[in-house]
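not sure who needs this but someone in the group chat was asking about Cytosolic beta-glucosidase from Theropithecus gelada so here u go. i didnt clean anything up, its just raw.
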Amino acid sequence: MAFPVGFGWAAATAAYQVEGGWDADGKGPCVWDTFTHQGGERVFKNQTGDVACGSYTLWEEDLKCIKQLGLTHYRFSLSWSRLLPDGTTGFINQKGIDYYNKIIDDLLKNGVTPIVTLYHFDLPQALEDRGGWLSESIIESFDKYAQFCFSTFGDRVKQWITINEANVLSVMAYELGMFPPGIPHFGTGGYQAAHNLIKAHARSWHSYDSLFRKQQKGMVSLSLFAVWLEPADPNSVSDQEAAKRAIKFHLDFFAKPIFIDGDYPEVVKSQIASMSQKQGYPSSRLPEFTEEEKKMIKGTADFFAVQYYTTRLIKYQENKKGELGILQDAEIEFFPDPSWKNVDWIYVVPWGVRKLLKYIKDTYNNPVIYITENGFPQSDPAPLDDTQRWEHFRQTFQELFKAIQLDKVNLQVYCAWSLLDNFEWNQGYSSRFGLFHVDFEDPARPRVPYTSAKEYAKIIRNNGLEAHL
């Protein structure tokens, strides 16, 4: 079961989750520094990313892990506030540039292609203080930061992700308040943040296109989180419609403007408008793009980057009481099938990824697809011999193989989440996604391969699964 020649096998990390060095060498505070230092049990056991995996000082150890796996690509993110401590180019932190230059140069020296994310949830606190993603001024701040990164690193980096999981960020941070700044705005904040995230991404894509592409010849996209969604009762028309609506609110909300026509899906606009009217709002709670903005947003991605972990069942849930919220606007509820195995929120449904890839192919004109994250957690303490987890990976690779061979999906890169056990946001260190175990009690933060790492290395060596599987 060989994958196409030149298929990219990667692993991924993100700055706040692995680097530590939260205030080292002139780094400015990011929103997760502030949020975790405030305590209040919003993160498991009030854990923080102050030290995390110590990758800021232990990059050489990470590189050994990358070489041990034989990765062809490595995805990591830049800490915006390590490079620009107050979020603006008013002060540039050379120590931050040096750190990322070393990572990029070491990867290239070892034949590993960097995939670099500009922003992975860790907004500089100085910009959050000015309204964060709820403020339109963030669009220009992000564009200037992106241009700074393109000009500093783009001579060597050819694959860029502007914003990680914009659809998760908008909901978790500005709708539900579970991510920093930690203030919920039900029914309004998520839409306002999403509107600015889409425009910021599009602006930075155009900056790359007009100022850097000719010389650097790279590719730019954003990554979107996608849960595959199935009707709870396949014979129920209302559940079928609800499942279609759910994917429009969840994935197409961002993907349709960027890949198709610069605007939100019709059903999303009509649902939110009609709910807003019933609730007595003078206009829809979903902001509108101007005709000019639609033109600017349309076609601003060079490949489709998607992050798949799990699948859910969807049921129609009428919003009788006119409650505020995204699920209420979509009139859906979601839940797992009780027969699915799970660790925490991840129910293991390998066939979901194939269905998702086929949906993206059919809906978005057969784009080049990168899976920029996919993985399975273990609860702490995690066994090093994680054969059960490896089985989930193996089944996933079988589904990817079918997607490529049978569905003719143009999948080119797969990134396992994650290279290392790390700080998993609200779950702290309790959820271990690493291919390498990290001992967070040991100041040296030793990295030890799980069985999954050794097995993944074999897959990479063979460019696929052994034929008899």
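also The mean pLDDT is 98. if thats useful
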